[in-house]
UniProtKB/TrEMBL annotation:
Converts N-acetylmannosamine-6-phosphate (ManNAc-6-P) to N-acetylglucosamine-6-phosphate (GlcNAc-6-P). The keyword Isomerase applies. GO terms for cellular component: cytosol. PANTHER family: N-ACETYLMANNOSAMINE-6-PHOSPHATE 2-EPIMERASE-RELATED. This is Putative N-acetylmannosamine-6-phosphate 2-epimerase. It comes from Brevibacterium marinum.
């Protein structure tokens, strides 16, 4: 199923996007498992999915009829979220309705600017673009570069802001005050329903939750730690 930009915005506004990801070496690292998790969270009310890896994107597209935000992580440091145009183009061809990519002002491995990458994606594919930002200046640059969505995914991870224990509420407020469009999506360390309420109150128009829903090893560790704490 294809969606227009307006349809995607309407679908996710004020609602939950679930990030369904597993990484090499994890028991759930299988596209079929990702697709099953995706179908399960959609049944629970998720308005869209955020999925990593080409095979996982393809499997998820076959399993659900909701918007799929796709990305391709490549590398271990620096710009790793859909780092080049080639990665982004492949994510679009795999079926992602929205391509999520590193939206920081750091140099991209292929030498293209964010604006050049966004423009090529818009020209050569039907995909929209979500810029994963780490600061207010990133968000301003992403808006200027033509991104369709701005997310706070990299707040605390790009070196410009400290890593907050929970979501970076201050950054959300700063972006909301300075950037009227594109749509602002909160992501990063959102672990509880109260965190969701907080980011929406701070100005986010949609919210991504991943680990707290789709990463059993981490969720289990929280409870294990609680058992071991006097």
């Amino acid at each position: 199923m294809m969606f227009t930009k307006q349809e995607i915005c309407d679908a996710i506004r004020g609602r939950l996007i679930v990030s369904a990801q597993a990484y090499p070496g994890e028991p759930m690292r299988d596209p079929r498992t990702t697709a099953q998790v995706a179908a399960s969270v959609v049944r629970g009310g998720a308005a869209a999915l955020r999925v990593q890896g080409l095979a996982d994107i393809e499997a998820t597209r076959s399993a659900v009829e909701t918007p799929v935000i796709g990305l391709w992580k490549d590398g271990t440091s620096g710009v790793v979220i859909t780092p080049t145009y080639q990665h982004a183009h492949a994510v679009a061809l795999a079926g992602a309705h929205v391509v999520a990519l590193d939206g920081t002002r750091r140099p991209r491995p292929d030498g293209l600017s964010l604006a050049q990458t966004v423009a090529r994606l818009h020209e050569e594919t039907n995909a929209l673009v979500m810029a994963d930002c780490g600061s207010l200046d990133d968000a301003l640059d992403a808006a200027e570069s033509g991104a369709d969505f701005i997310s706070t995914t990299l707040a605390g991870y790009s070196g410009e802001r400290p890593k907050t224990p929970g979501p970076d509420i201050e950054l959300l407020r700063e972006i909301r005050q300075a950037v009227l469009s594109p749509m602002l999506v909160a992501e990063g360390r959102i672990h509880t329903p109260s965190d969701v309420s907080a980011v929406l109150s701070a100005g986010a128009e949609a919210v991504v939750v991943g680990t707290a829903i789709t990463h059993p090893a981490t969720i289990t560790s929280w409870f294990v730690d609680a058992c071991e704490t006097p």
